Structure prediction request, 623 residues.
Amino acid sequence: MSMRLPRGRRRSPLAWTTAVMMASLVVLALVGPLVWGAAADRPDPAAVLQGPSAHHPFGTDGLGRDLLARVLTATRPSLLFALAAVLLGAGPGVLLGACTAVLGRRGRRLTAGLINLLLAFPALLVAMFLAVVCGAGAAGAVLALAAAGVPGFARLAQTLAAGVAGTDHLASARVLGLRRHRLLWRHVLPHIAEPLLLSATTAAGTTLVALSGLSFLGLGVQPPGYDWGLLLSQGLDRIYADPLPALAPGLAVLYAALAFQLLGEVLAGSAARRPPAPPVPSPAPAPSGPAEEGLVLQVEDLGVELPTPDGTIRPVRGVSLSVRAGEAVGLVGESGSGKSLTALAVADLLPYGARVSRRTLRLLGADLAALTSRERDRHLATGLAMIFQNPASALNPTLRIGTQLTETVRAHRGASRAVAAAQAADALRRVALPPELLRARPHQLSGGQRQRVMIAAALMVRPGLIIADEPTTALDATVQRQITKLLTDIRRETSTAVLFVSHDIALVGEFCERVLVMYAGTVVEELPAGRLADGARHPYTRALVDSVPDLAADRGQPLRTIGGAPPDPLTPAPGCPFEPRCPHRRDGCAEQAPPLAELDAGHRVACWHPLPVAAVPERATAS
Prediction:
């Protein structure tokens, strides 16, 4: 058994102390009975009840056995019994509490009532009562403590499972008709496992103390067996004459309990401070390309790899883009095309375990690959701002708006509280919100107001680039128009560049100056926004434009859609990724993927047979 400290906590003195303490307990549990077991069980009538000496540092007991050897040998049973009680209590408790997320209304109410009833009785009194009922002995004490720990684990699991019960992925699994046990094992428990493991770690320390207490009272381990609690009980009779025989097992209990508590503290602190989206850096990044004058963002050959149970997928492959100061560039495509992952890769916000590769990634002229981790975090925090699709989840519901607006400038700009508050009030005025909202909390604002607050937060650091990831998707048409107008005004007043990510090609065409169309993780066309309607040359771009509803169209005809489905990222085809859905495909399109080639100034397309400007492609409706 070994413990690997989380990265980022390895230099913490608390983490090192905990590692040493846990390692010492593990070593003693493994080698204690082998090294000191014989001395611990060997009686010596000539050395009965002796005090501490050179031969017996802790003294001897009533049969002349060495107490130091008995304390060290008792490490294994004391730890094993405590861990067994925790595991036996955590298993049923977690299942009882977690099942409330998958049961029906009546079953959920009955289970919640049962948990509340069990919690009404003090755990220690329940353990003592059950230990008497089960009979004195190690097995009875372990079962009693396990049963007493079930309600606590059940309540924790119930609380955590309540946060999973209302998620979209669990609702989708219910619609698919999955049985309750599959919902529990695949969709509930994996999402609540980490806090439960942390709780079990700290519970091991309290269970060890409780188990020692039962042995001290004669309800736990019985002679000739022994643990720390029994040794403490045997040494208590002579505590006034020789205190060390009683203090030694007591200090051992305290040491082990403290080690488990510190382990839980270290693991919990590591989980709380873990970056929400740390991408795994490439082992050997390619040398960066030359910087181009006037570019706020320069990306060349960006790739993203994500590990999955079925293998590694590449949802973003070979993406290159650039954004100039004051320019609005749209990133558009169907869901799953890789546009949001591209934006998150630029912002260093990819999911945990993702791997990023790039030839060039420059923000405001700085090569991000050449910066240290701290320098990169500071440069991203001050040079780039993100506006997310759902401001309700992006804003902390427990903090006031003013606190969330000012924390960035206070942390990275060194602004005082008063100066930061004044800047926050000015930022709210710029997005047409009253400064009085600084004292409000997110739930008191409407969806449009929350999105304006996100824009105000982005303006606080005066970034050179704003990445807006679907910022208007959850808003109605009127508020959408207000948000895009606000972004346009900000861009013109401050020369801030905007990378606008959306699946709405009509909105992108109105708001942006240049558009990059993504499909299956690659850029298939780049063109000026003014040429979207009549100048798109890639069949996929033309299909997206044709799918926009037209008020002048015949309402008796079905809306135009793109037939087929995007390719499976686990099994990418060697040819053009759009070839299976393209009504203009030819024999050679399935053999090799086309490069992104320049047709004319500002217009690039990845297609072996670009459509002529005047062509109207046939549209195949989805079956």
Notes: The chain has 20 helices and 14 strands.
